[in-house]
What we know:
By secondary structure, the chain is α/β, with parallel strands linked by helices. 44% of the residues lie in helices and 16% in strands. The protein starts with 7 loop residues before the first strand and ends in a 6-residue tail after the last strand. Residues 12-13, 15-19, 37-39, 63-65, 90-93, 113, 141, 143, 186, 188-189, 191-194 line the site of nicotinamide-adenine-dinucleotide.
Amino acid sequence: MGKLDGRVAVITGAARGIGRADALLFASEGAAVFVSDIDEAPLAEVVKEIKAAGGKADGLAGDVRKLEDCQKIMDQAAEKFGQINILVNNAGLTRDALINRMSEAQWDTCVDISLKGTFNCIKAASKYLMKQDNNGRIINVASVAGLMGNVGQINYSAAKSGLIGLTKTVAKEWGRYGLTCNVIAYGFVDTRLTAEKEAQEERVDGELVGIPKKIRDLMLLQVKPMTPEDAAKPVLFLASDDAAFITGQVLNVSAGIYM
Ligand SMILES: NC(=O)c1ccc[n+]([C@@H]2O[C@H](COP(=O)([O-])OP(=O)(O)OC[C@H]3O[C@@H](n4cnc5c(N)ncnc54)[C@H](O)[C@@H]3O)[C@@H](O)[C@H]2O)c1
């Protein structure tokens, strides 16, 4: 028996990193998983990987900044698997710069993906989630930067902090359906987002992703980084029956970076 038998989960930002690990874990626990990401090729690999392991999966590429993409993702997921019970709003991107040097585009990109993208997905999934006894679960993905602030991340910190108010509002509005909505504040997870910037070859919209080596080395002096697989476990917990009455909460999964 899997912890998510019979459930349908939509996961955004699932082509790599934490979202990919969520998708593999959810499928291994019996969920039918509908994955999405802006990057089509690695997304298709995740679908293949889940199916090869005997799981149920399908996917559609899309940009969470666009409400029409989010609507297509949710409609196709519901059409394919009959319902949506779980939504993991995991897509995210950093665009770091000090306040005086941050461009309007960097601000907009970060806030639009993390904050507006989460709203878009929730709105697009509303007709599937606003149902009694649907075991509805929304898990939003924030960061300790949203709790404590972070130098060079005014856009990211503001967006991730905004997810906390958003989460509590969904928990209040949809609690009567038995739906829970929580937000995870991660610390340091080893993914493309936290990889050594200087060693990256790939650019996303013209900018390198990752963090400068000296900042990464400083973080490594403080904490042991989580793997994406480590990071996926609390997401499974919040999606499972074990967390049926936990809602509107910020779950700090940071190995003590912030406490
Ligand atoms: N890695 C960490 O230490 C850390 C810490 C705190 C929070 N987080 C959060 O965890 C989440 C997952 O990040 P990750 O570390 O796995 O990074 P990642 O870069 O490995 O994965 C993020 C995924 O989101 C996708 N994405 C980016 N923009 C998108 C868009 N507009 N529409 C759809 N998909 C888009 C990317 O293509 C990528 O596959 C993010 O929300 C991130 O902010 C990560």
